[in-house]
Amino acid sequence: MTPLTGQTEVVINGYAPTMRILSLVAVITAFAVGQKPPNIILFMVDDLGWQDVSVPFHTEKTAFNRRYRTPNLEKLAERGMKFTNGYASAPVCTPTRTSLMTGQCPARTHITYWTLHKDRDQSAKHKLVRAPKWDVNALQGKRATLPRALKAMGGYRSIHAGKAHLGAKGTRGEDPTRLGSTSTSPGTPPGGRAATTASMTSAPSTGARTGCGTCRAWMRTTARTST
After folding, report:
1. Is 2 inside a domain boundary?
2. pLDDT for 7-24, tens place per residue?
3. Considering the domain boundaries, does residue 148 fall inside one?
4. In the annotation, is 93 catalytic?
5. I want to staple 94 with a disulfide (CB 3.0 to 4.6 A). Which of 29, 46, 110, 114 is the partner?
6. In whole angstroms, what is the distance from residue 77 CA to residue 47 CA?
């Protein structure tokens, strides 16, 4: 699908590392046809099933799709792209999120469990099974990330809103701005009660504004600059 001028590319319920590649393909395609680079909005939602929104990810709507009302997601899906063949790279937060941000599987990054405090292993102890050695501090500034790749390829600047859970508290990785994002909006590093819905949104640096106090305000600004 070739993006229209000013169109917003949407990845809903996107977990697989291949989404990073697909996002970059969208940018390359826009440049190739001489169009303005599209805005990219990427939602990462914990524990969201493929039928937990009103947007169908099957050939037809299911009973669960009809149970939920998410009209804004329907509008975004109609304007952009919808990917229906993705999967989580891990069953818990941190390895899934860092996999998406780096384009590498947990086995390669050695981030195989969720992190919390600096230098602390959060995995449970077992009298018969020993957990493999893993990167307990998770994602840090030394790795290539999706926001950095988008900036290098298309001049994008990114805002991370809500839950991050990419790096341990007390490390550089707890702050998304040290992982390539231009700014960050309310939310705690590991998520929890204080965090809003996790998302990473990007807009081209030419003509787009990202100054905001909350994700909702930034989304309104993006909508105005995308039309």
Report:
1. no
2. 434 333 333 344 455 555
3. yes
4. yes
5. 114
6. 20
